[in-house]
Amino acid sequence: WHTCPNDGRINASNPCSEYMFLDDTACNLASLNLLKFFNSATGKFDTEKFVHATRLWTIVLEISVLMAHLPTKTVAERTYLFRTLGLGYGNLGALLMQQGIAYESDKAYAVTGAITAIMGGESYATSAEMAKIKGPFAKYSNNKDPMLKVIRNHRRAAYNVSGNEYEGLTIKPMGINLSNIPDFELTKIAAESWDFALGLGEKYGYRNAQTTVIAPTGTIGLLMDFDTTGVEPDFALVKFKKLVGGGYFKMVNQSV
Predict the structure, then answer these.
(1) Residue 206 and residue 128 in contact, taking contact as beta carbons nearer than 8 Å
(2) Which of the residues are catalytic?
């Protein structure tokens, strides 16, 4: 789902394989801890706070494009031309675990799809709002049609449309099965987010050629107190991590 095919093909990913885009570009990363938005007493995921955090961090990452120290002149130039961001989340496994949802289940797929759709849709909507004020990224006009096609396809997946409604895809994506999500607010905002992203983008374009990824969050997950990393289930309830300087330390799953 390449937003800028008129500027070249995607040849490879970055080393951690979460970022798929043009050569010599960068995605400044940030991850949200999903468990911080879950109320264990009520069993509810706070979509309002999650939307707010997504919007805020999209703006923070847009600012970071101007502040980043990049390794080469080419990467710096192309990063400014496309302004790609990398907002994501981690600790999904712990979120599902605390809700009593089996990791590899239809309900888990649906809940994960809805949360991811909210993050992606709200982030692109915020990017469009920034484009209204600051203008779209420099290469947007050259890629307007294919980028809007990508956004429309994301919106279709949020609404779980039939396969023949997607544009230019040979493989149908897994849409969000709303019947597997008991939280109506989650499904409502998941769909609305992409309505906003498309509607605003058609008017103003987007400030960023890409806004979200799901990073492995292996190292930062330790600092952010994750029980599980990016989108993975827990490896074990008690884990031992080997240290570069020698020795090990023990990590115990706090959710359990």
Answers:
(1) yes
(2) 14, 16, 18
* Dist. CA 124–CA 107, nearest whole Å: 26
The dihedral built from the CA positions of residue 92, 97, 100 and 102, taken in this order, carries a sign that is positive
The region, left, alpha or beta by phi > 0 then psi within -120 to 50, assigned to residue 156 is alpha
6: tokens are 């008129």
Q: Is the dihedral of CA 223, 224, 226, 229 positive or negative?
A: negative
CB 252 within 8 A of CB 237: yes
Half-sphere exposure of 110 (CA within 13 A, CB side): 18
CA–CA dist 85, 82 (Å, integer): 9
The stretch 198-224 carries a mean pLDDT of: 94
Q: What is the mean pLDDT of the chain?
A: 94
Query: What is the token pair recorded at 182?
Result: 């008991």
Q: What is the pLDDT of residue 73?
A: 95
Q: Token digits for 89?
A: 């989340």
pLDDT-derived band at 167 (thresholds 50, 70, 90) equals very high
Query: d(Cα 148, Cα 6) in Å, to the nearest integer?
Result: 13
How many Å is the Cα radius of gyration of the chain? 19
CA distances from 25 to 36, 76, 121, 210 (A): 31, 8, 22, 11
Given the structure tokens 């597997």, which residue do they identify? 180
C-alpha–C-alpha distance, residues 232 and 185, integer Å: 25
The residue type at 189: I
Q: End-to-end CA distance of the chain: give it in Å, rounded.
A: 38
